[in-house]
User: Fold this.
Amino acid sequence: MSRPVTVGVDGSEGSVAAVDWAADEAAVRGDGLRLVYATRWAEHQLGAMKVSHDDRADAAEGVLAETERRVGSRQPDVALTADEVEDAPVSVLLAAAARAELLVVGSHGLGSVRGFVVGSVGQEVISEAQRPVVLVRPGYEKDASRASGSGTARKVVLGLDVNEARDELLDFAFDFAGRHGVPLEIVHTWHDSFVHHADAAARDERAAALAGAVRPFRDRYPATEVAEVSAPGRAAEHLIEASSDARLVIVGRRRAARGSHLGSVTHAVIHHASCPVAVVPHT
Assistant:
């Protein structure tokens, strides 16, 4: 039995954007869509204000009913389930992610520097989830329309460190691009300090390493159009720039034996990319 696409619901503008993205993704995959509402979410949002159990339950019922209507109007053929779970948002979303194909959460919108404002719940979930998490902000569809302009398919962008190329990352990226029928751009960068002392042979070696990491997946997904970009500079800057005309940017997060590890590149991308971002955990 296939896992559902799962989305965290709380009635906020970011949550509505996440629901729209998740419904469309579930339709593309042919998977079910699961809505999850943490009944302590209102308590989390209102801080010290007292919120009764009945008030939380009423809020959950209202938000879930409205969300179900929205999904039914947008993607009527998607099989839909909705669950109210009484626990803190982070605990609810992590448990839901463990049983999902992927988890979708909303951001708070744009900050003073163009990009996501990732709240404490979203960041903790991204850091701890054992399944891919997609972060979606309000307005992503309008930005997508402006980026596509001519109506051409927008690319998927993967940030890849060839020294730590992981099957989980590459498989997710090729599978997503293939399902959507869009090109995949794989970006590998190295620090400027290396470039200052590098010759053409060293640059070719970097490009060859990227090609070698990608080749097995080209063979596995022959229909996917792939562009390999091996360039000097900082990875986060390249990925944030590439996000301006991308459908999705994909970055990795290393699973740790104890705790979690959200690297500097992933941290920068989830805060400043201008399109949805998928964070894929890997060993």
Remarks:
- The first strand starts at residue 5 and ends at 8.
- Residues 95 and 129 are 9 Å apart (CA to CA).
- The chain is about 45% helix and 20% strand.
- Residues 110-117 have pLDDT under 50 and may be disordered.
